[in-house]
Predict the structure of Beta-ketoacyl-ACP synthase III.
Amino acid sequence: MPTPVITGKGVFTPEDVITNDELVASFNAYATAFNEAHAAEIAAGEVAGKPMSSAAFITQASGIERRHVMEKSGVLDPTRMAPRLPGRADEEPSLMAEIALKAARPALEEAGLAPENLGAILCAASNMERPYPAMAVEIQALLGAPGFAFDMNVACSSATFAIQVAADMIRAGSITSALIVSPEITSGHLEWRDRDCHFIFGDVCTALVIEADAERGFAIRSTKAATQFSNNIRNNNGFLRRAHDQMDDRRDMQFMQNGRKVFKEVLPLVSAHIEAHLAEDGTTPDQLRRLWLHQANKSMNDYIGRKVLGREPEAGEQPNILQDYANTSSAGSIIAFAQHSDDIAPGERGLICSFGAGYSVGSVVVERI
Ligand code: CO8
Protein backbone atom coordinates (compact mmCIF):
# COMPACT_ATOMS: atom_id res chain seq x y z
CA MET A 1 0.00 0.00 0.00
CA PRO A 2 1.47 3.43 -0.92
CA THR A 3 2.45 5.77 1.92
CA PRO A 4 1.03 9.30 1.68
CA VAL A 5 3.69 11.97 2.28
CA ILE A 6 3.25 15.72 2.80
CA THR A 7 5.80 17.17 0.38
CA GLY A 8 4.76 20.82 0.10
CA LYS A 9 3.32 23.55 2.34
CA GLY A 10 2.13 27.05 1.50
CA VAL A 11 0.61 29.95 3.44
CA PHE A 12 -0.86 33.09 1.91
CA THR A 13 -1.09 35.88 4.51
CA PRO A 14 -3.16 38.97 3.57
CA GLU A 15 -1.29 42.28 3.98
CA ASP A 16 -3.91 44.10 6.07
CA VAL A 17 -3.43 43.72 9.85
CA ILE A 18 -5.85 44.80 12.60
CA THR A 19 -4.41 45.10 16.11
CA ASN A 20 -6.59 44.61 19.19
CA ASP A 21 -6.36 48.33 19.93
CA GLU A 22 -7.60 49.28 16.43
CA LEU A 23 -10.39 46.71 16.62
CA VAL A 24 -11.57 47.86 20.04
CA ALA A 25 -11.45 51.56 19.07
CA SER A 26 -13.70 50.86 16.07
CA PHE A 27 -16.08 48.63 18.08
CA ASN A 28 -16.36 51.15 20.91
CA ALA A 29 -17.09 53.98 18.44
CA TYR A 30 -19.87 51.83 16.96
CA ALA A 31 -21.24 50.89 20.42
CA THR A 32 -21.16 54.52 21.64
CA ALA A 33 -23.05 55.71 18.53
CA PHE A 34 -25.57 52.86 18.98
CA ASN A 35 -26.14 53.69 22.65
CA GLU A 36 -26.61 57.40 21.84
CA ALA A 37 -29.03 56.64 19.02
CA HIS A 38 -31.08 54.29 21.22
CA ALA A 39 -30.74 56.16 24.54
CA ALA A 40 -34.50 56.41 25.16
CA GLU A 41 -35.22 52.73 24.37
CA ILE A 42 -32.23 51.63 26.46
CA ALA A 43 -33.45 53.77 29.41
CA ALA A 44 -36.95 52.23 29.05
CA GLY A 45 -35.44 48.72 29.06
CA GLU A 46 -36.74 48.01 25.52
CA VAL A 47 -33.29 47.72 23.90
CA ALA A 48 -30.11 46.35 25.46
CA GLY A 49 -27.25 48.83 25.55
CA LYS A 50 -23.96 47.78 23.95
CA PRO A 51 -21.15 47.29 26.50
CA MET A 52 -17.65 48.40 25.47
CA SER A 53 -14.96 45.96 24.32
CA SER A 54 -11.48 45.83 25.83
CA ALA A 55 -8.10 44.95 24.30
CA ALA A 56 -6.86 43.74 27.70
CA PHE A 57 -9.80 41.28 27.91
CA ILE A 58 -9.14 39.96 24.40
CA THR A 59 -5.45 39.26 25.02
CA GLN A 60 -6.07 37.71 28.43
CA ALA A 61 -9.08 35.56 27.38
CA SER A 62 -7.75 34.34 24.03
CA GLY A 63 -4.03 35.11 23.54
CA ILE A 64 -4.90 36.91 20.28
CA GLU A 65 -2.99 40.16 19.65
CA ARG A 66 -3.75 40.93 15.99
CA ARG A 67 -5.30 39.37 12.89
CA HIS A 68 -4.82 39.61 9.11
CA VAL A 69 -7.86 40.39 6.97
CA MET A 70 -8.46 40.71 3.24
CA GLU A 71 -9.65 44.34 3.68
CA LYS A 72 -9.47 46.31 6.91
CA SER A 73 -10.99 49.75 6.15
CA GLY A 74 -14.55 48.39 5.89
CA VAL A 75 -14.15 46.27 9.03
CA LEU A 76 -12.88 49.26 11.03
CA ASP A 77 -15.51 51.71 9.71
CA PRO A 78 -17.97 51.97 12.65
CA THR A 79 -20.83 52.68 10.22
CA ARG A 80 -20.12 49.49 8.19
CA MET A 81 -18.13 46.86 10.13
CA ALA A 82 -17.71 44.42 7.25
CA PRO A 83 -14.89 44.13 4.71
CA ARG A 84 -15.17 45.99 1.40
CA LEU A 85 -14.77 43.21 -1.16
CA PRO A 86 -16.40 44.20 -4.45
CA GLY A 87 -18.39 41.52 -6.27
CA ARG A 88 -16.76 40.01 -9.35
CA ALA A 89 -18.08 39.08 -12.78
CA ASP A 90 -18.50 35.35 -13.43
CA GLU A 91 -15.66 35.57 -15.97
CA GLU A 92 -13.20 36.77 -13.32
CA PRO A 93 -11.45 34.41 -10.84
CA SER A 94 -13.32 34.19 -7.52
CA LEU A 95 -11.62 35.70 -4.47
CA MET A 96 -11.28 32.33 -2.72
CA ALA A 97 -9.78 30.78 -5.86
CA GLU A 98 -7.37 33.69 -6.18
CA ILE A 99 -5.97 33.32 -2.66
CA ALA A 100 -5.99 29.52 -3.00
CA LEU A 101 -3.56 29.91 -5.89
CA LYS A 102 -1.32 32.18 -3.80
CA ALA A 103 -0.94 29.40 -1.20
CA ALA A 104 -0.92 26.52 -3.70
CA ARG A 105 1.95 27.78 -5.88
CA PRO A 106 4.63 27.80 -3.10
CA ALA A 107 3.34 24.41 -1.86
CA LEU A 108 3.66 22.90 -5.36
CA GLU A 109 7.07 24.53 -5.75
CA GLU A 110 8.33 23.04 -2.47
CA ALA A 111 7.02 19.65 -3.59
CA GLY A 112 8.61 20.08 -7.02
CA LEU A 113 5.31 18.97 -8.53
CA ALA A 114 3.80 20.52 -11.68
CA PRO A 115 0.03 21.13 -11.51
CA GLU A 116 -0.32 18.88 -14.61
CA ASN A 117 0.72 15.94 -12.41
CA LEU A 118 -1.89 16.50 -9.68
CA GLY A 119 -4.44 13.73 -9.18
CA ALA A 120 -7.01 15.65 -7.13
CA ILE A 121 -7.67 19.05 -5.56
CA LEU A 122 -9.66 19.45 -2.35
CA CYS A 123 -10.88 22.89 -1.31
CA ALA A 124 -11.45 22.39 2.42
CA ALA A 125 -12.78 25.42 4.31
CA SER A 126 -15.54 26.60 6.66
CA ASN A 127 -17.43 28.61 4.08
CA MET A 128 -17.51 28.61 0.30
CA GLU A 129 -17.94 31.75 -1.78
CA ARG A 130 -20.86 30.09 -3.58
CA PRO A 131 -22.55 26.69 -3.48
CA TYR A 132 -21.57 25.72 -7.07
CA PRO A 133 -19.68 25.21 -9.28
CA ALA A 134 -17.28 23.92 -6.63
CA MET A 135 -14.47 26.31 -5.72
CA ALA A 136 -12.03 23.41 -6.14
CA VAL A 137 -13.03 22.91 -9.79
CA GLU A 138 -12.35 26.59 -10.52
CA ILE A 139 -8.96 26.30 -8.75
CA GLN A 140 -8.25 23.19 -10.84
CA ALA A 141 -9.00 25.13 -14.05
CA LEU A 142 -6.84 28.11 -12.99
CA LEU A 143 -3.92 25.77 -12.20
CA GLY A 144 -4.43 23.77 -15.41
CA ALA A 145 -4.61 20.52 -13.44
CA PRO A 146 -6.19 17.29 -14.74
CA GLY A 147 -8.06 14.78 -12.57
CA PHE A 148 -10.90 15.85 -10.32
CA ALA A 149 -11.61 18.40 -7.61
CA PHE A 150 -14.22 18.91 -4.92
CA ASP A 151 -15.11 21.11 -1.95
CA MET A 152 -15.55 19.92 1.61
CA ASN A 153 -16.62 21.74 4.76
CA VAL A 154 -16.18 20.44 8.29
CA ALA A 155 -15.70 23.97 9.72
CA CYS A 156 -12.44 24.21 11.71
CA SER A 157 -11.61 20.57 10.98
CA SER A 158 -11.91 20.86 7.19
CA ALA A 159 -8.16 20.65 6.50
CA THR A 160 -7.40 17.68 8.77
CA PHE A 161 -10.45 15.80 7.47
CA ALA A 162 -9.23 16.58 3.92
CA ILE A 163 -5.81 15.16 4.80
CA GLN A 164 -7.57 11.95 5.87
CA VAL A 165 -9.56 11.81 2.61
CA ALA A 166 -6.50 12.51 0.41
CA ALA A 167 -4.31 10.05 2.36
CA ASP A 168 -6.98 7.33 2.06
CA MET A 169 -7.31 7.91 -1.70
CA ILE A 170 -3.52 7.65 -2.08
CA ARG A 171 -3.40 4.45 0.01
CA ALA A 172 -6.26 2.99 -2.03
CA GLY A 173 -4.38 3.79 -5.25
CA SER A 174 -7.07 5.95 -6.88
CA ILE A 175 -4.67 8.94 -6.99
CA THR A 176 -0.93 9.42 -6.52
CA SER A 177 -1.01 13.09 -5.47
CA ALA A 178 -3.39 15.70 -4.05
CA LEU A 179 -3.47 19.41 -3.32
CA ILE A 180 -5.48 20.58 -0.28
CA VAL A 181 -6.26 24.29 -0.09
CA SER A 182 -7.99 26.03 2.82
CA PRO A 183 -8.93 29.60 1.86
CA GLU A 184 -10.52 31.03 5.02
CA ILE A 185 -12.10 34.46 4.49
CA THR A 186 -13.63 34.48 7.98
CA SER A 187 -14.00 38.30 7.93
CA GLY A 188 -16.96 37.81 5.58
CA HIS A 189 -18.97 35.74 8.04
CA LEU A 190 -17.93 37.18 11.37
CA GLU A 191 -20.31 39.64 13.10
CA TRP A 192 -17.88 42.47 13.86
CA ARG A 193 -20.65 44.25 15.84
CA ASP A 194 -20.77 41.53 18.53
CA ARG A 195 -18.39 42.17 21.46
CA ASP A 196 -18.34 38.48 22.43
CA CYS A 197 -16.83 37.32 19.13
CA HIS A 198 -15.53 40.34 17.16
CA PHE A 199 -11.92 39.58 18.11
CA ILE A 200 -11.83 35.86 17.36
CA PHE A 201 -11.12 35.41 13.63
CA GLY A 202 -8.70 36.34 10.84
CA ASP A 203 -8.21 35.61 7.12
CA VAL A 204 -5.56 33.39 5.52
CA CYS A 205 -5.12 30.55 3.02
CA THR A 206 -3.04 27.42 3.49
CA ALA A 207 -2.08 24.66 1.05
CA LEU A 208 -0.59 21.18 1.38
CA VAL A 209 0.68 18.82 -1.30
CA ILE A 210 0.45 15.10 -0.52
CA GLU A 211 2.19 12.49 -2.71
CA ALA A 212 2.49 8.71 -2.73
CA ASP A 213 5.80 7.18 -1.56
CA ALA A 214 7.82 10.42 -1.77
CA GLU A 215 11.39 10.24 -0.49
CA ARG A 216 11.30 13.51 1.46
CA GLY A 217 8.70 15.33 3.55
CA PHE A 218 6.37 14.13 6.32
CA ALA A 219 4.97 10.63 6.00
CA ILE A 220 1.36 10.41 7.18
CA ARG A 221 1.44 7.49 9.63
CA SER A 222 -2.27 7.64 10.45
CA THR A 223 -5.30 9.91 10.69
CA LYS A 224 -8.35 9.96 12.96
CA ALA A 225 -11.57 11.93 12.47
CA ALA A 226 -14.53 12.23 14.84
CA THR A 227 -17.73 14.27 15.08
CA GLN A 228 -20.39 14.82 17.73
CA PHE A 229 -23.39 17.10 17.05
CA SER A 230 -23.58 20.41 18.94
CA ASN A 231 -25.47 23.69 18.46
CA ASN A 232 -22.87 25.65 20.40
CA ILE A 233 -21.12 26.89 17.23
CA ARG A 234 -23.62 27.60 14.48
CA ASN A 235 -24.41 29.69 11.40
CA ASN A 236 -28.03 29.51 10.13
CA ASN A 237 -27.45 31.12 6.73
CA GLY A 238 -28.43 28.82 3.88
CA PHE A 239 -30.35 28.34 0.68
CA LEU A 240 -33.74 28.00 2.43
CA ARG A 241 -33.37 31.52 3.81
CA ARG A 242 -35.77 33.15 1.31
CA ALA A 243 -38.32 30.42 1.97
CA HIS A 244 -38.57 31.33 5.64
CA ASP A 245 -41.18 33.90 6.73
CA GLN A 246 -38.53 36.13 8.25
CA MET A 247 -36.26 37.08 5.36
CA ASP A 248 -34.29 39.97 6.83
CA ASP A 249 -30.68 39.75 7.94
CA ARG A 250 -30.78 38.03 11.31
CA ARG A 251 -27.89 37.79 13.77
CA ASP A 252 -27.85 34.01 13.37
CA MET A 253 -26.94 34.37 9.68
CA GLN A 254 -23.37 35.07 10.87
CA PHE A 255 -21.06 33.09 13.15
CA MET A 256 -22.67 32.38 16.56
CA GLN A 257 -21.14 30.53 19.48
CA ASN A 258 -21.44 29.85 23.17
CA GLY A 259 -17.69 30.21 23.71
CA ARG A 260 -17.57 29.13 27.34
CA LYS A 261 -19.53 25.92 26.66
CA VAL A 262 -17.34 25.18 23.62
CA PHE A 263 -14.26 25.67 25.77
CA LYS A 264 -15.51 23.26 28.46
CA GLU A 265 -16.98 20.58 26.18
CA VAL A 266 -14.34 20.46 23.46
CA LEU A 267 -11.28 20.17 25.72
CA PRO A 268 -12.05 16.69 27.14
CA LEU A 269 -13.25 15.54 23.71
CA VAL A 270 -9.97 16.56 22.05
CA SER A 271 -7.69 15.21 24.80
CA ALA A 272 -9.44 11.80 24.74
CA HIS A 273 -9.38 11.79 20.91
CA ILE A 274 -5.62 12.41 20.76
CA GLU A 275 -4.88 9.83 23.46
CA ALA A 276 -6.93 7.20 21.56
CA HIS A 277 -5.31 8.13 18.23
CA LEU A 278 -1.77 7.89 19.62
CA ALA A 279 -2.54 4.50 21.16
CA GLU A 280 -3.95 3.21 17.84
CA ASP A 281 -0.92 4.58 15.97
CA GLY A 282 1.53 2.98 18.40
CA THR A 283 3.09 6.35 19.21
CA THR A 284 3.80 7.26 22.82
CA PRO A 285 3.54 10.93 23.91
CA ASP A 286 7.30 11.08 24.51
CA GLN A 287 7.85 10.17 20.83
CA LEU A 288 6.10 13.39 19.76
CA ARG A 289 8.59 16.10 18.95
CA ARG A 290 5.86 18.67 18.25
CA LEU A 291 2.12 19.36 18.51
CA TRP A 292 0.61 21.60 15.81
CA LEU A 293 -2.73 22.35 17.41
CA HIS A 294 -5.84 24.18 16.25
CA GLN A 295 -5.43 27.89 16.90
CA ALA A 296 -8.52 29.14 18.74
CA ASN A 297 -7.40 29.96 22.25
CA LYS A 298 -4.03 29.91 24.01
CA SER A 299 -5.39 28.47 27.28
CA MET A 300 -7.08 25.64 25.35
CA ASN A 301 -3.78 24.74 23.69
CA ASP A 302 -1.86 24.96 26.99
CA TYR A 303 -4.40 22.56 28.54
CA ILE A 304 -4.31 20.08 25.63
CA GLY A 305 -0.50 20.17 25.51
CA ARG A 306 -0.25 19.37 29.26
CA LYS A 307 -2.86 16.61 29.02
CA VAL A 308 -1.36 14.90 25.95
CA LEU A 309 2.29 15.12 27.00
CA GLY A 310 1.57 14.49 30.70
CA ARG A 311 3.79 17.47 31.66
CA GLU A 312 4.29 21.16 30.94
CA PRO A 313 5.19 21.53 27.20
CA GLU A 314 8.70 22.89 26.65
CA ALA A 315 9.29 26.04 24.61
CA GLY A 316 8.71 25.38 20.92
CA GLU A 317 7.09 21.99 21.50
CA GLN A 318 3.61 23.35 20.88
CA PRO A 319 3.96 26.51 18.76
CA ASN A 320 1.08 29.02 18.70
CA ILE A 321 0.48 31.36 15.80
CA LEU A 322 -2.88 32.68 17.06
CA GLN A 323 -1.28 35.79 18.60
CA ASP A 324 -0.52 36.96 15.01
CA TYR A 325 -3.33 35.37 12.97
CA ALA A 326 -6.20 34.89 15.50
CA ASN A 327 -8.45 31.88 14.80
CA THR A 328 -8.26 31.12 11.08
CA SER A 329 -10.61 28.14 11.35
CA SER A 330 -9.35 25.10 9.40
CA ALA A 331 -6.08 26.83 8.42
CA GLY A 332 -4.76 27.40 11.97
CA SER A 333 -3.03 24.08 12.68
CA ILE A 334 -1.70 24.02 9.10
CA ILE A 335 -0.10 27.48 9.49
CA ALA A 336 1.55 26.24 12.72
CA PHE A 337 2.77 23.13 10.86
CA ALA A 338 4.00 25.10 7.81
CA GLN A 339 5.88 27.67 9.88
CA HIS A 340 7.28 25.39 12.59
CA SER A 341 8.32 22.08 11.02
CA ASP A 342 11.55 22.66 9.08
CA ASP A 343 13.70 21.79 12.12
CA ILE A 344 12.09 18.36 12.65
CA ALA A 345 14.74 15.66 12.03
CA PRO A 346 14.25 12.44 10.01
CA GLY A 347 12.52 9.80 12.15
CA GLU A 348 10.93 12.37 14.48
CA ARG A 349 7.15 12.45 14.83
CA GLY A 350 4.55 15.13 15.38
CA LEU A 351 0.79 15.55 15.61
CA ILE A 352 -1.48 17.97 13.71
CA CYS A 353 -4.87 18.39 15.39
CA SER A 354 -7.87 20.63 14.71
CA PHE A 355 -11.22 20.98 16.47
CA GLY A 356 -14.31 23.13 16.24
CA ALA A 357 -17.87 23.38 14.97
CA GLY A 358 -19.82 20.17 14.55
CA TYR A 359 -18.27 19.40 17.01
CA SER A 360 -15.44 17.95 14.95
CA VAL A 361 -11.93 16.74 15.79
CA GLY A 362 -9.32 15.69 13.23
CA SER A 363 -5.79 14.48 13.96
CA VAL A 364 -2.83 13.40 11.84
CA VAL A 365 0.36 11.66 13.08
CA VAL A 366 3.31 12.49 10.82
CA GLU A 367 6.93 11.31 10.72
CA ARG A 368 9.76 13.17 9.01
CA ILE A 369 11.43 11.16 6.29
N1 CO8 B 1 -14.39 42.88 25.85
C1 CO8 B 1 -14.67 42.94 27.18
N2 CO8 B 1 -15.44 42.03 27.80
C2 CO8 B 1 -15.94 41.01 27.08
C3 CO8 B 1 -15.68 40.89 25.70
C4 CO8 B 1 -14.89 41.88 25.08
N3 CO8 B 1 -14.60 41.83 23.77
N4 CO8 B 1 -16.31 39.79 25.25
C5 CO8 B 1 -16.95 39.22 26.28
N5 CO8 B 1 -16.73 39.97 27.39
C6 CO8 B 1 -17.26 39.75 28.74
C7 CO8 B 1 -18.48 38.86 28.71
O1 CO8 B 1 -19.63 39.60 28.42
C8 CO8 B 1 -18.47 38.31 30.12
O2 CO8 B 1 -19.00 39.28 31.00
P1 CO8 B 1 -19.88 38.83 32.27
O3 CO8 B 1 -18.94 37.99 33.11
O4 CO8 B 1 -20.24 40.14 32.87
O5 CO8 B 1 -21.02 38.06 31.71
C9 CO8 B 1 -16.98 38.17 30.43
O6 CO8 B 1 -16.30 39.05 29.53
C10 CO8 B 1 -16.47 36.76 30.23
O7 CO8 B 1 -16.96 36.29 28.94
P2 CO8 B 1 -16.78 34.82 28.46
O8 CO8 B 1 -17.20 33.88 29.54
O9 CO8 B 1 -17.41 34.67 27.11
O10 CO8 B 1 -15.18 34.79 28.31
P3 CO8 B 1 -14.23 33.55 28.15
O11 CO8 B 1 -13.21 33.59 29.20
O12 CO8 B 1 -15.00 32.28 27.97
O13 CO8 B 1 -13.49 33.87 26.76
C11 CO8 B 1 -13.59 33.09 24.47
C12 CO8 B 1 -14.24 33.96 25.55
C13 CO8 B 1 -12.21 33.68 24.19
C14 CO8 B 1 -14.45 33.17 23.21
C15 CO8 B 1 -13.45 31.64 24.96
O14 CO8 B 1 -14.66 31.19 25.51
C16 CO8 B 1 -13.04 30.67 23.87
O15 CO8 B 1 -12.02 30.81 23.23
N6 CO8 B 1 -13.83 29.60 23.70
C17 CO8 B 1 -13.56 28.58 22.71
C18 CO8 B 1 -14.09 29.06 21.45
C19 CO8 B 1 -13.76 28.14 20.32
O16 CO8 B 1 -12.79 27.45 20.27
N7 CO8 B 1 -14.63 28.17 19.34
C20 CO8 B 1 -14.41 27.50 18.14
C21 CO8 B 1 -15.02 28.36 17.10
S1 CO8 B 1 -14.25 28.24 15.61
C22 CO8 B 1 -15.03 27.09 14.62
O17 CO8 B 1 -15.50 26.09 15.01
C23 CO8 B 1 -15.11 27.44 13.18
C24 CO8 B 1 -16.42 28.00 12.87
C25 CO8 B 1 -16.46 28.41 11.45
C26 CO8 B 1 -15.68 29.66 11.17
C27 CO8 B 1 -16.47 30.91 11.35
C28 CO8 B 1 -15.75 32.13 10.86
C29 CO8 B 1 -16.41 33.45 11.22
Remarks:
- Residues 9 and 107 are 4 Å apart (CA to CA).
- The chain has eleven helices and 13 strands.
- The mean pLDDT is 96.
